[in-house]
Design a protein that fits this description.
This protein has five helices and two strands, in the order ααββααα. The chain starts with a helix and ends in a 7-residue tail after the last helix. The radius of gyration is 12 Å and the shape is globular. By secondary structure, the protein is mostly helical.
Length: 82
C-alpha cells in the first residue's frame, strides 16, 4: 500500500489529518517545539494511536512517520526544519 493510501484510509476512519494527529501529539508532549520528544519511544506513540484511535500497527507507523518528517509533503504538512 502506498503511503498516501495509508493517510487516506486513516482520515476516512478517524476524520483526522496528519496535522490533527500532530496537534494531539503536541498536547501529549510527544512533540515539543515541532520535533519529536527525544525521551519518547516510537512504541509509546504507536501504542497511543492504537489504543485511543483504534489504528492498526501499519497505520500508526504511518502517522509516526509524519511526526519524524519523512513524508510530510505527501501528508500535506510543511517540512520541519532541522
Amino acid at each position: 500500500m502506498l503511503f498516501q493510501a495509508y493517510i487516506d484510509n486513516i482520515k476516512s476512519k478517524t476524520g483526522k489529518t496528519p496535522a490533527d494527529f500532530k496537534k494531539m501529539a503536541e498536547r501529549k508532549e510527544f512533540i515539543i517545539d515541532g520535533k519529536l520528544n527525544p525521551k519518547t519511544k516510537a512504541t509509546e506513540i504507536t501504542n497511543w494511536l492504537k489504543a485511543e484511535l483504534e489504528l492498526g500497527h501499519g497505520h500508526a507507523m504511518a502517522i509516526y512517520a509524519t511526526f519524524k518528517g519523512k513524508t510530510l509533503l505527501l501528508a500535506g504538512l510543511p517540512p520541519t526544519q532541522s
